[in-house]
UniProtKB/TrEMBL annotation, chains A, C:
UniProt keyword annotation of Repressor present: no
PANTHER family given in the database record: PYRUVATE DEHYDROGENASE E1 COMPONENT SUBUNIT ALPHA, PYRUVATE DEHYDROGENASE E1 COMPONENT, ALPHA SUBUNIT BACTERIAL AND ORGANELLAR
InterPro entries for this protein: DH_E1, PDH_E1_Alpha_Subunit, THDP-binding
The protein, known as: Unannotated protein
A GO MF label: pyruvate dehydrogenase (acetyl-transferring) activity
Taxonomic source organism: freshwater metagenome
Known cofactor(s): thiamine diphosphate
Gene Ontology biological process terms, A to Z: pyruvate decarboxylation to acetyl-CoA
Domain Dehydrogenase E1 component: 25-317
Assigned keywords, A-Z: Oxidoreductase, Thiamine pyrophosphate
Keyword 4Fe-4S among record annotations: no
UniProtKB/TrEMBL annotation, chains B, D:
Gene3D superfamilies the record matches: 3.40.50.920, 3.40.50.970
Protein name per its UniProtKB record: Unannotated protein
One matching Pfam family: Transket_pyr
Taxonomic path: unclassified sequences, metagenomes, ecological metagenomes
One of the record's GO molecular function terms: oxidoreductase activity
Segments forming domain Transketolase-like pyrimidine-binding: 6-181
PANTHER family: PYRUVATE DEHYDROGENASE E1 COMPONENT BETA SUBUNIT, PYRUVATE DEHYDROGENASE E1 COMPONENT SUBUNIT BETA
Alphabetical UniProt keywords: Oxidoreductase, Thiamine pyrophosphate
Length: 333, 332, 333, 332
């Protein structure tokens, strides 16, 4: 896996980057379609939160990062994980409860972390990762790492006290963190109209002295540019930015969701704003990629995901014998 | 009605519906309890029947929700709060413990907090460590809270109605594996109340007294049916409320069986069930014991994700059979 | 005790009201001086948070309320309590751990509540009362009481998650609550400059769609007017307002405070902005009260406080025998 | 140095100073720990010695502070968090329990959280119900946390240094009445470590084994001195860490005394000390008991304000004397 940002000047400036963006968005989508299928066939356990329709955000954001830069993710974290460079084999293996899964089968979809690619972990607690991101940013500042930390969270998470306390600390200490609100319109069934008395959720930054920007979260290029600027600001010691990416999840909140709180029309309407299709149009229009290039990226993505699933299936089921030993890190002598 | 084998979700919903009908001051608040019908479907159609004022969807703000409920309870209402997973009570612990539990006492009795906090507890759905805890021990060690753990649909309905009647804060812990299972007893259609603080003798047997709550009642019952075949007969006592805890039936049973086994899903270390052991060995039953007390509890690990790990982490029917058999056989 | 708001058109419009405002501010100050003295002489136990220098806020606010309107208070709550109409005898008795204290000796300074005057209680937890006020406002809305709830808190409390979650709920549900931040410049030793990246703390309302106003918290008349407007707004269903009253505490945070985090000059400077003296100047200047009137109010205040202390001293010490019975309210048959 | 009778505050400060010197990744964060020197004066002059980056004053945001510490611990630092009163851990329970305690396990071992959370625990200062709780039972029942309760300045220093070394989250509960009391043992000036998970036999006596932590160690010692005069001799065992809990010295002592008394300040119902009882009666000591186990704990009430009430609510020296005498005399 190459480190995306190293490839990049501007996201649309090179074929290589355009291909990378498309391939990665496609891999996220195919990955989630594949695990949804496995889940539907009863081969996976637990719950699952799909980010289909939201792929531009993780990809655009992570393309603006270096490998050393860190992220914290959410319950809806497959995209963040893949975009930051995780190994899909170990992801699927985790979902299948295998020993070679990222968490050795102990965490599942909501707890995948990948230290090597700077992913400090998904989180099953809404808002739970936000103060953690701020803490990692404090480490960066104290240790003069020169890195940034991205805190991904949903619109719903902004109403948790954790957001509030973390945002204030980041602002007063000018920490190198970027708050990224993936506003998909709903926190489970709770619409942003009902949960907020605000036009733009990015205005919530005003209460902390944090600049806030709202933009189209389905435009990978816009996402990249806004992130790059916020990252630069963070790394130069000017403190956090709050980016609100407006997007939509096509699937239900989780498997048990009957979608009673929104209309089919609304969902269909948003499908026309597919971030992947949107990006394809742009790159073709600008003559950056051909239709064949595009098809090739999707083919590659499919191939990679199928290979990952097949490989993951071969893993050994996690063994209960190791549980007690896994609770504490051993005290080194 | 002769055949009313409801699920626990249905029974809980029925209790709330009765309370909503009986008392205008009852209302429900929580995340996704409206149109969505609740994360586990417990509120179901109540939103359509009672409207959005009384079945009040909230943003994702557990601390705010519980605090709001405390304030509403202080000033004339009787809120029922639903917290989707008991793990998220961690977000609201200040309002639960430092406010709700203590206000009546701290202010000298002039205020009280008639609040019910319902929440889904326990493991078994593959939701992993942040969605599967059994936290009854936290609440039990906080004076000022009542703590209820229903073990069947029939029990759930009667206990919830009593909890709503109670002028004090009640933590109502519903095991998520029980929600969708139909009970074996009929659930009467109208109102009935099961008083808080009265243990239930679920079944009687001569050899061993087992104390368990919630899902463990189901598992002990299954184990007991197996052990019956071996001629080992179990008395099962379900305290139903762990605060207050009614020990009389346990003492009475131990006078007959002389053997005690306690079972819980929560991690063994520092778990609530130790209270039962402590009362027995410091209390009137001590002289009746003819075998060492035995306890069976969850492993001291966060709840893992993979099904084979998750099962291993908490007592299963086979574990209960094995341990119960051992104590009876070894101490004939 | 008369209900102040019933007397009122405008706080300065009548001699009666001016006298009332002055008398009440003076009573708060004398009360706190008296308990500080008792404390210093070892006759009181525990801790104590004095609001000397901040008297305009409780008095101005409570004059804009009816008896049925409710308040939630803080650890620094003697002023709120007295201004809302509490009986100083029972207050002192509580501090002395007497049976006839407000809490029967079980709560002490940080837990005095007075249901009859609509005081839902002081709170030892910073920010703890804010969601409770919002809940009381929800009761008011649901039961169509037509009342408002005042949530008093300090600047420091605004950084607690409790503030955040409560503010958002109040805003989206348009609850009849007024948030009153008594900004005395410090949360214990933590200055607002270090704890916030904001010019005005009232700007924090922006993140919730709550209008915020900052004003001189030592001007009882300004406090009254702002509160009255916010109360009117709340009662007419338009939702919460955030009022920031800038003030200062003359004394240390609590008894153990060595005041290392601020200068003597700063304290002295603020003493020149004494809310009581300020009000005296205004009423004399406008010819509303004479110097004799003023002296009379202070005399009355002193007299009342001394009488309260003497009366409270006579109370029976709280008896441990009642403790277990005091935990739960009895279930009525 | 021959006479180094420090207070617990001083000993804790010394431990932190050594850790700050030893490891650049150690830093302290909390409310009023800077110029103010800490709500109980524990950080004292560290701010002046190490500067505001490493002795980091925070706004009033317990959840944010602990979460920030978790994130910092995950990425190379070793934060020590001070929470002014243990009651305010309620604000931060999500980060303590759902994050810090579980991350290492949940993510499969790739991350760990070397975090120490120091906080003031217990009653006795007239601060009432929201500032006086003993909450060790909550943390003990959470797999993934270590829980330390020092009982003297000497112990505090050695245990805190080990807690800081530990790669896992450690909850360090300091009884507020101990802060300003000088210890009876000298506290060595340099670094020394007392391993977590090793109980200490504080004194030995033939008649009764008492298990207690924190301030109760002091009170049991005072009681033991009185009882010595009556010819009743007590062994006192201080587990020092309740998670992990080292029971071996308790078993060894019971083999000699045959009598067990457990003492805690926390409310009796569902309190941690029950774990000790459970281990004894389900473990190897059962056969050695010649008297019923006896427990002495806080009343099941929120801590009241007035001194006479506050004293009555938790075990005092006289209560310990009385109950210890009773069990020894009645079961000669
Ligand atoms: C503290 C907490 N409260 C509630 C939940 C249950 N829950 C899981 S995801 C979710 C919705 C989150 O909404 P949002 O932050 O907008 O993220 P999205 O799911 O839309 O990506 C809820 C309520 C939780 N996991 N944690
Ligand atoms: C949750 C919580 N954290 C910390 C404290 C300790 N404490 C008591 S008062 C106080 C300062 C509060 O500052 P502010 O809200 O500005 O009120 P002020 O004391 O200035 O009136 C602190 C830190 C507490 N009581 N509760
Ligand atoms: Mg969302
Ligand atoms: Mg202040």
């Amino acid at each position: 896996m190459t480190t995306p940002a190293l490839l990049l000047g501007h996201p649309l400036a090179s074929q290589e980057n355009a291909r990378y963006a498309l391939l990665t968005m496609s891999r996220i989508r195919k990955f989630e379609e594949a695990v949804e299928d496995l889940f539907g066939r009863g081969m996976m356990h637990g719950t699952m939160h799909l980010s289909i329709g939201q792929e531009a955000s993780p990809v655009g954001v992570c393309m603006a990062l270096n490998l050393e830069d860190q992220i914290t993710s959410t319950h809806r974290g497959h995209g963040h994980c893949i975009a930051k460079g995780a190994d899909p084999v170990r992801m699927v293996a985790e979902l299948l409860g295998k020993e070679n899964g990222y968490c050795g089968g102990r965490g599942g979809s909501m707890h995948i972390a990948d230290v090597e690619t700077g992913n400090l972990g998904a989180n099953g607690i809404v808002g739970g990762g936000i103060p953690i991101a701020v803490g990692a940013a404090l480490s960066s500042q104290l240790m003069k790492k020169g890195t940034v930390v991205i805190s991904f969270f949903g619109d719903g998470a902004m109403n948790e006290g954790a957001f509030h306390e973390a945002a204030n600390l980041a602002s007063i200490w000018k920490l190198p963190v970027v708050f990224i609100c993936e506003n998909n319109g709903y926190g489970m069934s709770s619409s942003t109209e009902l949960a907020f008395n605000l036009e733009k959720l990015s205005d919530r930054g005003l209460g902390y002295g944090i600049p806030g920007i709202t933009l189209d979260g389905n435009d990978v290029s816009a996402v990249y540019e806004a992130t790059e600027a916020a990252v630069k600001r963070a790394k130069s010691g000017e403190g956090p930015t709050l980016l609100e990416f407006v997007t939509y999840r096509w699937k239900g909140h989780s498997r048990s969701d009957k979608n009673l709180y929104r209309t089919k029309e609304e969902i269909d309407e948003w499908k026309t704003k597919d971030p992947i299709l949107h990006f394809e149009h742009v790159v073709v229009e600008r003559g950056l990629l051909t239709e064949a290039d595009i098809a090739e990226q999707h083919r590659l993505a499919t191939e990679q995901v199928i290979a990952a699933v097949n490989e993951a299936m071969k893993g050994k089921p996690a063994d209960p014998a190791g549980l007690l030993d896994a609770v504490f890190k051993k005290v080194s002598a | 009605m002769s055949d009313r084998k409801l699920t626990m979700s249905e029974a809980l919903r029925e209790a709330m519906s009765i309370a909503l009908d009986e008392r205008p001051e009852v209302f429900i608040l929580g995340e996704d309890i409206g149109i969505y019908g609740g994360a586990f479907g417990v509120t179901g159609d109540l939103y359509h029947r009672y409207g959005k004022e009384r079945i009040r969807d909230t943003p994702i703000s557990e601390l705010g929700i519980v605090g709001t409920a405390v304030g509403a309870a202080l000033s004339g209402m009787r809120p029922i709060v639903e917290i989707q997973f008991s793990d998220f009570t961690a977000q609201a612990m200040d309002q639960i413990v430092n406010q709700a539990a203590k206000i009546h006492f701290m202010v000298g009795g002039g205020l009280h907090v008639p609040l019910v906090l319902r929440t889904a507890s326990g493991s078994g759905t593959g939701a992993a460590a942040q969605h599967s805890q059994s936290l009854e021990g936290w609440f039990a060690n906080v004076p000022g809270l009542k703590v209820v753990i229903p073990s069947s649909p029939y029990e759930a309905k009667g206990l919830l109605l009593s909890a709503i009647d109670d002028p004090n804060p009640v933590i109502f812990l519903e095991h998520k594996l029980l929600y969708k299972v139909a009970g074996t007893e009929d659930v009467p259609e109208g109102a009935y109340r099961i008083p808080l603080g009265v243990s239930r003798v679920v079944r009687e047997g001569k050899d061993l007294t087992v104390v368990a709550t919630g899902i463990m009642v189901t598992r002990v019952l299954a184990a007991a049916a197996e052990l019956d075949k071996e001629g080992i007969n179990i008395t099962l006592i379900d305290p139903r409320t762990i605060s207050p805890l009614d020990m009389e039936p346990v003492y009475a049973s131990l006078a007959k069986t002389g053997r005690l086994m306690v079972v819980q899903e929560a991690p063994e270390h520092g778990g609530f069930i130790n209270e039962v052991i402590a009362r027995v060995v410091t209390g009137p039953s001590l002289g009746h014991l003819i075998a060492p007390v035995t306890r069976l509890a969850g492993m001291n690990v966060p709840i893992p994700y993979a099904p084979q790990l998750e099962k291993a982490a908490v007592p299963q029917v086979e574990d209960i059979i094995k341990q119960a058999r051992e104590v009876v056989v070894n101490w004939r």
